[in-house]
Design a protein that fits this description.
single chain; elongated; about 150 residues
């Protein structure tokens, strides 16, 4: 694949991640807000369910903000970065997004079940915390390195 075509593919992936994929995020974010209110109504403001709902909302927001920053920087520098390394990085970032989505989906599922059953002791974050853009800065570092290492001309 020539560089022009590869650049189009990468920019298309970035576009998808920035504009199309966030529909899943906004849906999950809306569910989080609904569960926050349900937790508040069912268990009170100081409950673990409310705290977990708030943490989930804050973390998801920070993750999307960091993802947007990284992808925007890559997009802005696409003409001067190594396209093969960038393509690999985008694939890794997409896999991280899938893992992150599944992680938060399981947390929200626990909160949902807790609200449905009104069992006050159910909300527990999965023990093995999944790597995310806010818990693992290696993705941010890799993106900076991609941009810093200008393509050999």
């Amino acid at each position: 694949m020539n560089d022009f075509r590869k650049k189009e593919v990468i920019l298309g992936q970035i576009d998808f991640m920035l504009e199309t994929a966030p529909e899943e995020f906004w849906s999950m974010y809306a569910d989080s807000v609904v569960l926050l209110f349900r937790s508040f109504i069912n268990f009170g403001i100081n409950s673990e369910q409310v705290k977990e709902s708030l943490n989930t909302i804050k973390e998801m927001w920070k993750i999307k903000k960091e993802e947007k920053r990284i992808l925007t920087e890559i997009s802005a520098n696409i003409d001067s970065i190594d396209l093969d390394k960038t393509e690999d990085f985008i694939l890794k970032l997409d896999a991280l997004n899938t893992s992150t989505y599944n992680y938060y989906d399981s947390i929200l599922g626990e909160i949902q079940t807790t609200c449905d059953t009104k069992e006050n002791n159910r909300v527990i974050r999965p023990r093995k915390q999944t790597s995310t853009l806010i818990t693992d800065d290696s993705y941010s570092i890799q993106a900076k390195e991609l941009i810093k290492q200008k393509k050999m001309i």
